[in-house]
Amino acid sequence: MSKRTIIAILIALVVTIAATAMWSAGTVERDGDTDANVIEDSGAPTGNSGDKKGNKVVHLVAAPFKAIGRLFGHHDHKLERMTAKDAEKFESLPVGRLDQSKEEHVVDNTASAKEHLSAGRELLRSGNLNDAIAELSRAVSMDPRLAEAHNLLGVAFDQKGLADRAKESYEKAVKFEPEDAQTLNNLGFSLYQNGNYRAAVDRLKRAAKLAPTDERILNNLGLALCRLGKFEEAYKYFSRAAGEFTGNINVATMLERLGRDDEAIKYYQAAARIDPTSAVASRRLIELYQRTGRWNAPGATTANADAAGVAVARK
Prior knowledge:
Blueprint lengths: L2 H26 L5 H8 L14 H17 L11 H5 L24 H13 L3 H14 L4 H13 L3 H14 L4 H13 L3 H14 L4 H13 L3 H12 L1 H14 L3 H14 L4 H14 L7 H9 L7
Helix pairs in contact: 1-3, 5-6, 5-7, 6-7, 7-8, 8-9, 9-10, 9-11, 10-11, 11-12, 12-13, 13-14, 14-15, 15-16
C-alpha cells in the first residue's frame, strides 16, 4: 500500500470521527438539568428566563477535537468552566474584551449603574459571559438595589455553571423586586437544580400566579412537583402549559425516569386516548408493557395494542 493511500485513509478516518462527534455533540455534550432537557425535548420550554442551555456552538466546534484527542490519548487544552474563585475577581479587575473581533460593548469607568446594566445585558445576549459578569457586577456594586442586574448576573453565573453564585444573585433580585415573575422563576429553577424542591415549588407557584400563562414557569413548576411525588398536581401545570396530551407525556416521562413504570403506563395510555396516532405514546407503551410483563397477560395483547394505538396480531 502506497504512502499516499495510507495518508488518504487516515484523513478519511479523522473526518469520519469528526463528523460523528459533530452529529452527537448536541446530546453527549449537552448542559443543564437532565429532566429539564428531556421535558424540553417534548416541546415544553423549561429553565431560566433567557437561559441558552449552554453554549451549543462551542460544543459543536470542540466535539471533533475532543473525540480525536480521546482517540490518541491527548487531554491538554480542555475547555473548562470558570471557577468560583475566577468569578470573584471580576469585581476588582479592569474590563477587557475576550474576543477582539467582537464589537466593543464595555462602557468606561465613569458610566452610571444603569449604563453598566445596559452593557451587561447586551454582552449576555451576545454570549460574552465574562465581560457580562464584569459589567453587571459593577452595576450592582454601584446600585445594590438594581434588581435586574442581580437577575441577569444570576443568569450569567448559571450559564457558567456556578449554581451557588447564581442562586445568591437571584435571591438578591427577588429581595428588591419580589413581584417579578421571571426573577421568581429563575430563583425557583435554581433551587430546583440544587435539589431544594419545596422551596422551588414555593417560588414557582408565586411566579405562576403573577404570570399564569407563562409556559416556562408552568413547566418548571411541574418538574419540581414531580420531584416531590405530586404527579397529579404536576400534570395540571404541564397541561396548562401545553395541553392535556403533552401534560400526560411529561408526567409519564418523569414517572418512567423515576422507575415508576406502572404509573407511567396510565399517563401514556391517557395520552394515547387523546391522540391515538401518537408514535411517542405507542412506542413507550409497547416497551413498558413488555418490561412489566403486561403484554402476555390474559386478554391484554389486544387491549394494550388498542390503547397504544398500534395493530398487533393475536398470538
